[in-house]
UniProtKB/TrEMBL annotation:
InterPro entries: AA-permease/SLC12A_dom, Amino_acid_permease_CS, APC_YAT. The keyword Membrane applies. One of its GO terms (molecular function) is amino acid transmembrane transporter activity. It is a multi-pass membrane protein. This is Amino acid permease/ SLC12A domain-containing protein. Keywords: Amino-acid transport, Membrane, Transmembrane, Transmembrane helix, Transport. The keyword Acetylation does not apply. One of its GO terms (cellular component) is membrane.
Length: 604
């Protein structure tokens, strides 16, 4: 019996380096007449099996991705001179994330409970003036931080993103602490958001068990993440469209309600800014609102995790990150300003604006005040979608961070399992298992557990953002120390290191203000016991001891040192671009642009 060799055709492929395997992206050059000038890749020739029965084997995609075995364990996928490793005849591109996916990842700034629900608590504690001012301040800090993150992720699109940057540019122990801090933040955000979603359902029906909806939401989130980064991006793109449409509609409706007035009182205008007033509880009220603003912006840094799975980081990431400026301006400032015009800060309906009570949402209260019957239900449906969207993002963020930690031997090795489709399966499954905590929603003591879970993730994001700014400063120092110029960077932060220093100082001040609020809260009660005071301090500052314990414990155990400037590695995992060619082309194109387009492209 003769065995004919399968026919082969020579094609060119491009090598894109990801976290733990060199991925071969197939491109038949006979069908592609142009090449992306924004990416430098290595072209090779490889045989392609035309009659491969396993191509349609869906289960094969769940097998572990092949990696090269080095003398000392598995490689991490970072090579300055890569040699393509072809795993059989299967070719997958887990860099499936495109500009739309990246933009959707950034849309996490339209937070679920942060914007729609807990903004009511912020309005009550600080008044409309404090709410607007705090969101403007945190928004300015976020703009500088995200610009710094974009610069780092474009040149180093590696797994782990900011936690890996902390290990490389600051201290391995600090990288360990930041990685686990961020991972725990998102691990416990999942059950929090699912609980909030289950309680949102009670707006329509309180008789159905909340566990039923917990199971439905958890299963939906698991299925979305099981289909990889592209499905995640597409789902978040749809969620973002719904949220953006709802907020734009609310802005238009809010203007109509404000001008037309309530059914019983007529024109509203700025009445509630005069009585009961623009501010509440003075400067302490403003400080108490800052943490709510930070909680609302949590998730904007997720785009850094998507960088390792993005086909062209230079093209996708900067444009997506710049949009944060406009989204903050339009969706947060304008929407919350209208809310403050329609709902007084002493309205008793927003006094119970906890993260699990959507009925106390100032958005719902504002619409109910106008006397409408259907629109409050529509707004609650939007809140439900927003909450599920954040839960979806929490699985994405925690699983990618956990897998990156495992690759750096900072987490159990099982979590480094990445299949041929680029999914960190073990980490995804573990993240969803933590979501099972949401079944406490039917317990009487769910509020106690909910508050302790919330305390773990409340201030954790401040450490992440501050660490991003500090690593950017250290990277710039190392870049200059290696005799590189800023013109060689494929993307430069607009505010530069000045913006990083400004944001870092701002986050430190916000953290100090929360220490003050924890010791002497706004709603301080005279009959509080010492036990109540200590419990309140831990509930508000739980992230601080967690970060310090992980950092000091790792440092004492492994005796790590702060990375000296001469020892900082700016080559491993670096993505090379034809910067001079791209800059010349962009300058030539920019000359023909009108002024409005140049201004738009500068910010967006």
């Amino acid at each position: 019996m003769s065995h004919d060799k399968p026919k082969t055709t020579d094609i060119k492929v491009e090598v894109a380096l990801t976290r733990d395997v060199e991925i071969i992206e197939m491109r038949n050059m006979s069908n592609v007449s142009h090449k992306d000038e924004n990416t430098t890749t290595w072209a090779i020739s490889a045989p392609k099996q035309e009659d491969d029965k396993e191509q349609n084997d869906w289960l094969d995609g769940f097998r572990r991705a092949d990696r090269r075995k080095l003398k000392k364990g598995w490689d991490k996928g970072y090579h300055s001179e890569p040699k393509p490793h072809v795993p059989g005849d299967r070719y997958f591109d887990i860099r499936a994330a495109n500009a739309k996916t990246a933009t959707s990842a950034l849309a996490r700034e339209l937070k679920g409970t942060g914007l729609f629900i807990t903004s009511g608590s912020a309005l009550h504690q600080g008044g409309p003036g404090s709410v607007l001012l705090s969101y403007i301040v945190i928004g300015a800090l976020q703009y500088c931080t995200m610009q710094s993150l974009a610069e780092l992720c474009v040149i180093f699109p590696i797994a782990g993103s900011f936690s890996a940057f902390s290990t490389r540019f600051l201290d391995p122990s600090w990288g360990f602490s930041m990685g686990w801090n961020y991972c725990l933040q998102w691990l416990f955000t999942l059950p929090l958001e699912i609980i909030a979603g289950a309680f949102t359902i009670t707006y329509w029906n309180e008789d159905i068990s909340k566990s039923v909806f917990v199971a439905i939401f958890l299963a939906a989130i698991f299925i979305i993440n099981l289909f990889g980064v592209k499905a995640y991006g597409e789902a978040e793109f749809v969620f973002s469209i719904i949220k953006v449409t709802a907020i734009v509609a609310f802005i238009l409706l809010g203007i109509v309600i404000n001008i037309g007035g309530e059914p019983t009182s007529g024109y509203i205008g700025g009445r509630y800014w005069i009585d009961p007033g623009l501010f509440n509880n003075g400067f302490k009220g403003f400080c108490s609102v800052l943490v709510t603003s930070c909680f609302s912006f949590t998730g904007t840094e997720l785009i850094g995790l998507a960088a390792a799975e993005t086909a062209n980081p230079r093209k996708s990431l900067p444009s997506a990150i710049k949009q944060v400026f406009w989204r903050i301006t339009l969706f947060y400032i304008v929407a919350l300003m209208l809310v403050s015009l329609l709902v007084p800060h002493d309205d008793p309906r927003i006094l119970d604006a906890s993260s699990s009570n959507s009925a106390a949402s100032p958005f719902v209260v504002a619409i109910e005040t106008a006397g409408t019957t259907v629109l409050p239900s529509v707004m609650n449906a939007v809140i439900l979608i927003a909450v599920i969207s954040v839960g979806n993002s929490s699985v994405f963020g925690s699983s990618r961070t956990l897998a990156a930690l495992a690759d750096q031997s900072m987490a159990p090795a099982i979590f480094s399992y990445v299949d041929k489709q680029g999914r960190p399966l073990a980490a995804i499954i573990f993240s969803c298992c933590i979501g099972l905590l949401a079944f406490i929603a039917d317990l009487k003591a769910h509020d106690v557990v909910f508050n302790w879970l919330l305390s773990i993730s409340s201030l954790a994001t401040l450490f992440t953002w501050g660490s991003i700014c500090l690593t950017h400063i250290r990277f710039r120092n190392a870049w200059a120390h290696a005799a590189h110029t800023l013109e060689q960077l494929p993307f430069r932060s607009r505010p530069g290191t000045y913006g990083s220093w400004f944001a870092l100082a701002g986050y430190v001040l916000v953290l100090l203000s929360q220490v003050w609020i924890a010791v002497d809260p706004v709603d301080h009660k005279k009959n509080e016991t010492t036990n109540d005071i200590v419990q309140n301090i831990f509930l508000n500052l739980m992230a601080v001891p967690i970060v310090l314990i992980m950092y000091l414990g790792h440092k004492l155990w492994y005796r790590t040192n702060f990375v000296a400037l001469d020892d900082i590695d700016i080559q491993t995992g670096r993505r090379y671009y034809r910067v001079h060619l791209m800059s010349d082309q962009e300058r030539e194109a920019r000359v023909t642009w009108p002024l409005w387009k140049r201004a738009y492209r500068y910010f967006c």
